[in-house]
Amino acid sequence: MTGLRAAVLAALCVLAGGASAQDIMLRSRDGGIEITGDLLGFDGEFYRMMTRFGELTVDASGVLCDGVGCPSLTDFVAEMRVSGSSSIGSVLMPALLEAFAQRDGLTATRETSGADRFTYVLRDPEKDRIVGRFDFRVGSTDAGFAELLADEADVVMALREIRPEERRAAQAGGLGDLTDHNRSRVLALDALIPVVSPGNPVNSLSLSDLAAMLSGKLTNWQALGGPDAPVVLHLRGEDSGLTQSIEDRLLRPSQLTLGGEIVRHDSNAALAAAVTNDPFGLGLASASEPGNSKALYLSGSCGFHLRGQRAAIKTEDYPLTAPMFLYMPARRLPALAREFLTFTRSAPAQIVIRRAGFVDQSPEELPLSQQGDRLANAVSVADGPEGLAGLKRMVGVLSPMRRLTTSFRFEPGSVRLDAQSRSNVQQLARSLELGEYDGRRLMFVGFSDGQGPASSNLDIASKRAQAVRLAVEAAAEAADLSRIDIATEAFGEAMPMACDDTVWGRQVNRRVEVWLR
Length: 517
What we know:
Strand content: 25-35%
Helix content: 25-40%
Distance between the termini: 54 Å
Number of helices: 15
Structural class: alpha/beta
Largest sheet: 11 strands, mixed
Radius of gyration: 25 Å
Number of strands: 26
Shape: globular
């Protein structure tokens, strides 16, 4: 009876389940308490029901269920509905689900029910019964969030961060704050690569030029040393997460909107193929599917030069890195679904992600000698003797150390970490809990943009490094931090990742890196 009271008092607001409402009665095993109501859902461990006391969640282990609507405790089939980006849902999620099933000795059979719908049926061959159904609807990020708000999806696959209006609607609908660390996670990384036809003589462009071309303000290739011909933009559909990410991250900070001649495409492969065959085309292709198009360097008036290579994407040094998100509401999923989501962060899952053509989340260590583009950019913008002295100090401190491919950045105009960085906090905290860096020195290193006095920038960078350190330590609740030498350092504006002549460039430069020895 005590267990039932505790379960009732700890009732959650919502819980996953697909059963229609049916009358049931839950009775404590000693017969002391009975609760009657409509069954709203069952996840194999907990009942969710509507009663005269409101919506309650009750632990199945402490009660007996009576009524025609009572589910089977022994033959329960876990269900999870996944909706959103086709870039994630077409290849990556199926590959991860098949690997998860193989690891657990299950068989995974794919059943197609439409052009954009399919179901994976997971079966336990030893017990000869179905244990799970994972329903997928692949389309757009917009559609994923819409289905979540309509209670037609349990997990959203997104190629952009949730927007403020979607966040407010989810909270109003009882789904919780989807920006919380346990409500969202980064599954893998992609990137937006400016691409042109192989015959186009242009080899690089700045972020400012790219923004001008996307907004229709720069319409002729001649301005970039190319032919006297109009620029034809090739983009994914308006509801594509990649397209919306361009608008949110590159255009909106400069108060620009998409414009000019735009050709839309239904898939990344179709976009890359169209640009390859269009001598005057410019596309923003997925790094996982550039096809035979020619990738352009990103340059800037300050002299920086970056390529969309794997290492630069993984460290988020490449300015157009595109995280691939999973968003989950504040309701309990079946145990099998939770186990799958946990698997997506495991070491075997990172191998699957790499094989699928995306950039994984497994931390790597890079020596200072592999920071060529970054150091070259830093030298080119070092301002006088003071700037060179700061650069020399940075090289002296970091030379014996290795950089971890985990970076932290902040939301525009805020001290709050952005969505990618909040996920990175949890990832690094888990590594500390597992003792992966015991006996080593771990340094949080802060950097800033170049606006304002160098001394003020150094102070701001130091405070950012301290803030990230505290966030990671707070998240690593089970870690023995006495086994790790944790420190902070700051170098201010010493090593910019982008030019400070754009809002976006300044935002990229405000970051915290992690270095190890």
